[in-house]
Amino acid sequence: MNSNNTPSSSAGGPGSAAADSTAPPTTRNSKRPKYSRFTQQELPACKPILTPKWVISAFMLVTVIFIPIGVASLFASHDVVEIIDRYETDCIPEDSRKDKIAYIQSSGDKTCNRILNVTKHMKHPIYVYYQLDNYYQNHRRYVKSRSDQQLRDRDSENDTSACKPEDKTANGSTIVPCGLIAWSLFNDSYSFSRNNQNLSVNKHGISWKSDRDHKFGKDVFPKNFQSGGLIGGKHLNESIPLSEQEDLIVWMRTAALPTFRKLYGKIEVDLVAGDVINVTLQNNYNTYSFNGKKKLVLSTTSWLGGKNDFLGIAYLTVGGLCFFLAMVFTIIYLVKPRRLGDPSYLSWNRNPGGH
Amino acid sequence: MKRCVYINDDDLSHDIYCDNRISNRKYTVWNFLPKNLWEQFSRFMNQYFLLIACLQLWSLITPVNPASTWGPLILIFAVSATKEAWDDYNRYLSDKKANEKEVWAVRHGVKKHIQAQDIHVGNMVWLRENDEVPCDLVLIGTSDPQGLCYVETAALDGETDLKTRVIPSACMGIDFDLLHKVKGLIECPEPDKDIRRFDANLRLFPPFLDNDVCPITIKNTLLQSCYLRNTEWACGVAVYTGNETKLGMTRGVPEPKLTAVDAMIDKLTGAIFVFQLVVVMVLGVAGNIWKDTEARKLWYVEYPTKGPWYELLVIPLRFELLCSIMIPISIKVSLDLVKGLYAKFIDWDNKMVDQETSTPAHAANTAISEDLGQVEYILTDKTGTLTENQMIFKRCCISGTFYGNEIGDALKDEDLVNAVATRSPDVIHFLTVMAICNTVVPIQRQNGTILYKAQSQDEEALVHAAAGLHMVFVKKNGNVLDINFNASVIQYEVLDTLEFTSDRKRMSVVVKDCQSGKLFLLSKGADEAILPCASTGQQTRTFSEAVEQYSQLGLRTLCLAWRELEEDEYQEWSLMFKEANSALVDRDWRIAEVCQRLEHHLQILGVAAIEDRLQDGVPETIETLRKAGINFWMLTGDKQNTAIQIALSCNFVSPEPKGQLLLINGKTGDEVRQSLERVLLTMRITSSEPKDVAFVIDGWALEIALKHHHKAFMELALLSKTAICCRVTPSQKAQLVELLKSCEYRTLAIGDGGNDVRMIQQAHIGVGISGREGLQAARAADYSIGKFRFLKRLILVHGRYSYNRTAFLSQYSFYKSLLICFIQIFFSLISGVSGTSLFNSVSLMAYNVFYTSVPVLVNVLDKDLSERTVMQHPQILFYCQAGRLLNPSTFAGWFGRSLFHAIVVFVICIHSYAFEKSEMEELSMVVLSGCIWLQAFVVALETNSFTILQHLAIWGNLVAFYVINWIVSALPSSGMYTIMFRLCRQPSYWITMFLIVVAGMGPVLALKYFRYTYRPSKINILRQAERLGGPILSLGNIEPQSRAFEKEVSPLSISQPKSRSPVYEPLLSDSPNAIRRSFGPGAPFDFFQSQSRLSSSYARNCKDN
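^ Those are the sequences you sent over. The predicted structure of the assembly is below.
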C-alpha cells in the first residue's frame, strides 16, 4: 500500500468548505439534525492514490526486505543437517517382498539393521523422526475418532461416542484410550549405536508440555487397549498413566498433511562427520497395504525449524518478481509518462454535451 | 352493494358491521411466531440457511459444530423478529390509545361517555371543538346556525387548510334537544378508500321531515382522524367504523421495493448457489470414488465393508455443508445495517435542511438508497416541485387593458389603482369576481387582520390581490359574504357553488346581491374552459393574446367572467342542479353536465396572471442532473405554454439551436398517430446529433397514444431524453411511470401534492417535497425533502455513495466467504476427499460474523470522490447508473481474486508448515491468520478514503483477531489450547504471514496500479485530479455561473414578440400548413407561432448577457 500523503485535510483538498456548506448552527431547531463530523460524513480522511512513485517504491521496498530474508532462510535451512533413511522396502527380506502385507501381519521377529552415514557435523540435540507418506491422519473418519474427555479425565471414561468403531471391546468394556487414532499408534521402534556403543535416545519431553499437563490425565491408565480381534498398532503399558505415554501423545497430535514426521526421540550428543550409526529397528507398522513409505529421519534444527527450502526460495522468488515489476513500471513510466488526473482524459470534456 | 345505516337504532346494526376497534397490527400474541417465521422463511436465502442448519444437526455429515450456523441464524432471525415485534407493539399501543379514547355518544337515547372502540354504525357521536373524529360520520347538527362546521383534514390528505362541512339540508333546523332522538336511514355505498367521494342518501323518519330523500356528499361528512375546528360542537352518525373507515381502507402496507442492487445480489447469489452445487457434485463423486478405491486400503480408517443405504449420500452432503459458507450468512445482516446507516446519513444531512421551514430530509424507506444512485429517469411534477407554489398575483388584463406590464406588479400599477378609484365598472366586476368567486374562508384575527384559509393557492392569491386593491373579503357568515370596498360593506349571498374539477377546469358561483337582489354567475377558470363560453358577440381575441403573452412569461393565467342571471332561468336550473347533486350514479358527470347549462354566454372580464416562482436552484439542479445522464420528464396538470416556459427557464429543455421541441397533439386517433410518427422520424434522425430533443404531449393525446399507439409511444420514450406532458391526470402520471418501468429504466418520481401520490408510489423511488400542498406526497414517498434542489445532493452524494458502498460490501462478503471455502475445498483434496474441515467451529463462525464483517462495515464511511468533485462532474454518476461497480464481470474479478488468494494462502501454508510442523490445529490457525491478514489488506487497498474509524476497524480488527485467539488459546478446555502462543513465538509463522501478504497483494496491487494509471476509469482520473489539485477543479465551475446570469435576466418584458422570425421550427415540417392542420379547428391559438415567439425572446435574453 502506498499512502501518498501526510494525513491530509478533510475530504477534497483545497477549499472544500466552499459554497454549499450552509450549516449555521445558530438557528437550532429541535427537528434539525445534530451537527457532527460523523453525521455529516465529513470526518477528516486521507485519500491515498496510486502514484507511480509510491507503487514503484513499495515494490522496491519489498524487494529490499525480501531478498535478505530469503537468503537468511536459505542459510538457516542449509545449516540443518538431515539424514533420511527410507526403509519400508529394504526391511523386508527379499523372499517376502512379493507379499509384504502377509509378512508384516505375520508374527515373528521383524528386526532390521540399517546403517546411517553422518556426512556433516551434527550438533546436539539431534531429533529423531519417523516420517510416513501417504498416510491420511487428516481423514474425516480418522480425525474425529477420539475422545478428549476420556483422555483428560478418569471420570469420563465412558465418554466414547465419537470413538466408533474402536470405542468398546467385543464384550462391551470401554477401551482407554479409545478411537482410531490411538488404536493405530505407530509401533516401529529404533535403537541406535555408534562404534558399537549404544547411543541413547531421550524419549522424554518429545510431546508438548501443555498436552502432558492438561490434555492427558495423570490418573488415566490404558484399559482394554489393543485387546480386540484386530490389533492396530502399539500396545501400551497399562501401569503408566496417559500423561507419560509420550509416543501416544505425539501420535494423537494428528497431522494435517498426508506426509508428516513425528518426533521419536532426541539424541543428546553431537555426531561428527564420518560417524557410522547402526540402527536396529523393529519393522512392525503396516504401511504396505496402502503403499505408504516409512522413513527414519535424524535432523538438527535451526531458528526456522527443520530443513525446508520453501520459505527461502519463495522469498527470493517474490523479491525477484517485485524487483522485476518495479523495473517494468519504472521503464513504462519513463518511456510513456502519463500525467495523472489529466482532465483531457475525461471524455465528456472532449465532447461537451455528449456522453 | 349498499349499506343501510339506521340512525340511533341500537339493536339493528350491531351485528352486521364491525365496531370501531382500530387495528393496524400485523400480528397477535399467538400468531406472531409462526407468522413472522413464515414471512422470513418465504425468502430463498433464509430457506437455504435453514436447510443448511438442519443438515448440520446430523453429526455424521457435519464438519463443524452445528452451533456455528445455528448461532448466527438464530441471531439474525431474532433481530428481524424483534424489530417486527417492536413495530407491532408500538402500533398496538397507538391503536389502544385511539380505541380507548372517551367520546360522547348516544346510547339508548341517552348521551354518555363511551370508549371510541365501542362506537357502532348508526350511533350518534358528539364532538367538541378540537376533538379528533373517531370514525366516519355523517353530520347531523352543529353549533352553527347555518349548519356549518370546519375541519382540518391534515392527517387524511395532508392539506392544512380548513375545510367547511355542512349538515344535510334535511337536518337543517332540528332543535338541539331533539338531535339525539333523530331516527332515520342513510343509504351509503360499501366502504371504499376514496376520501373525496361519498354519494349517499338520507331519509329521516317521523316526526322529523319525512319522505324527503336528501343527498349526502363528502361535504356532509366528518372523516376519521380529522379535527373539528372553529366550531363549538358538532354531531354526526357513524357510518363507517373501525378498519372500514375511509382512512382505514387507505391504510395498508405498501409493497416493499427491491433495489436493482438487491436484485443483482440475488442473481449473483443464485449463480454462486449453482456453482456450489457443481462443486458439491464433483467433490461428492470424487469422494465416493476415492473412498471405494483408496480408503478401503487404509486399514486405520476401518471403513465398514457394507455401509447403510444412504452411504452414497454422506460425502456429497458433507461437502454441501462444507461449502455452505460460500453464501455468506452475514451479508443479510451487514446490508441491513449499512442500509439503515445510509438512511440515517440522509436524515442527518445538514445540507439538505430547508432553512426556511427547518425541515430536514427524511428517508422513510431505509432499504432503497442504492437505487438513488442508479436513477435514469426523473419524472417531476411542476407546481410546487419546480416552482415554489407561492402564488402572487402579478398582472392582469381587464377589457383589453394590460396592467402591470411595465413594473411587473399590477398592484403597484397606477393605472389600475386609478381605475379602481374611479370605479370603472369592468375593473370593479373583475375585482368582485377575484374576491368572491372562490371557497376561501376569512378568519378575523385578534389584531384585526384577516387570515385567508384557502384550498387553492390561486384563490388565495386572487383574494389577497383584491384586498390589496381595496376590495376586501371580510367575513363569511354562512352563505353571506361581506365585502368591504372603499369603506362600504357590500353583501352577497352565495346560492350555489359550481365546484372546480380537473375535468371542468373552471369553477363558478351563483350569488345574489343582497342590496339589489340581482343574481349573478361569477366564473373563473382556465382560458380554454372559459373563452369558448363567451357570449357570442364578444371579441375574445385580446384575452387569448393576453393569456398567451402571460404564459410565455411562465405565469399561470385565469380567465374571469360573469353573467347576470334571470330569476326564472336560475330557478329552473337550480332544480336540475339539486337533482344531479342527489344522484347516486355518475354524480360527478351529471353535475358537470348541469353546470354546463348555466355557464354560457359569459361576459369575459379579463385575465389574471399569477406568478409561481421557480424554487431556488432548480435550473442548476436540473442541469447538473441532466449532465449526470438522468433524463427528465415533466408531468404537469398545467397548460402547454406555461409548462414549456417553465421548462425553458429551468433548463429542462435547451433553447434553439441546441434544443428542439417536438409537439404531439391531435384530437383523434389518426391525428395523434400522424403526429407521433412525424416526431418519431425526427427523433431517429436527430438522435445521432448532439442535440436536445424534447417532445411535448398533452393529456388528451397521451390518452390516445397510450391506448392505441402504445408501441410507437414506447419507442419514443426510449429515444427521447426529455418530455413535457401537460394536462395530465394523476393516473396518467402513474401510467407514464409504469411505461418507463416496463422499459427497464430506474425511475424516480418527485412531486409535492396529492395528485402525485400515485406516481410516487408507482416509481422505483418516490420523492416527496414537503411543500405547501400539504404532506400527502411526502408521506407516501420513500424520501421527503424540503426543496427540489436537494434532489441533486440526494442522488449525486447519497445515492452514489450508497451504491458504491453496497457494491463493495456485497462483493467483498462473497469474496471472503469464497476465500475460506476454496481453502476448505483444497484441503479436502489432500485429506482423502473425505470432507474434513480444516478450521474448527469457533474460527469458522467468528470468521464470518466477526473478523471479516467489522472492517467492511466501516466502509460505509468510504468516499471515492469528494462531494465537491461529484457535483462538478456529475457525469461520473454514469458508473452507478450503468451498474459498473456491481455486475457479473466485477463479481468475476472478486471471484478470481478469492481463488487466487486461496491458492496463495494454501500453497504457502502447506509448504512452510510441512513435515514435523504439519500439526492440524497449528496449520489451521496459520491458514486462518493468513486469510485474516489478506482480508485486512484487501479492505485497505479497496478503501478510498481512510478516516480514523477505518484505520481503527481494519488494523484494530487484526489486533482483535490475535487477542481473541490468545484468549481462546489460554483456555485448557478449548481444542486450540496454547496453539496461538506457540505460533506467535515461531519466527517461521511471521515470515509465512509476511510472505502471504506480499504474494497475495503484490499482483493485485500491480494490476490495480496498471489499470489506475494506464487504463484509468473516469473515477480514477477524478481521484487523481482531486488529489493533485490540477486545473480540473476550475474547469467545472464555469458553466453553473453563466447560468446564474441568465436567470437574472429571464423575466424581461416581452415587447412585440410577433415580429420575430420563427426559429423553433420542427425539422420535418413538410409544410407549415400540415402542422397547422394538425391542431384542429378548435385550437384556440397557434402553437407554431407562439413557439417561435417564446424561443426568440429567450434567445434574446441570452444575447443580452
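The two ends of chain A are 34 Å apart (CA to CA). The first strand of chain A starts at residue 45 and ends at 46.

Shout if you want it in another format.
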